[in-house]
Amino acid sequence: MNDYLHFTMDDADIGRLSSLALAHVGDCVYELLTRGRLVTGGLTTARNLHSHTVALVRASAQYEAAQKILPMLTEEESDVFRRARNTKVHGVPKAASKAEYAYATALEALFGWLYLKGRYERINALYDVIAQPEA
To answer: Which are the contacts of 20, defined by CB distance < 8 A and separation ≥ 6?
Structure first.
């Protein structure tokens, strides 16, 4: 039976993916982490879960999340992030600046890259920093 929850790819296959393809996967990974955090954190109504999720996964929030983890990234992770941040996108949502959207795309690409490499502990370590309230 295939494991559809834990996809992994080898380095050559991952290297053939565009930054936007990595961001496509990472968007889902990041939202799943956020939704799980909210559900296990005590939010129970669909309305509360949805509004809090949207607030945490929008480009401006992902920009802030990226700022928290950038100093922690390895050289390889920084390369993935930088490449995705510099990717040309065809549109930016009205609610986000071009810079916020670029960083959000880069954050999602990083999470997608880590997921496809099977680096779940690293995903958790980075997301744990993101989830910490501001001091």
So the answer is: 84, 87, 89, 105, 109
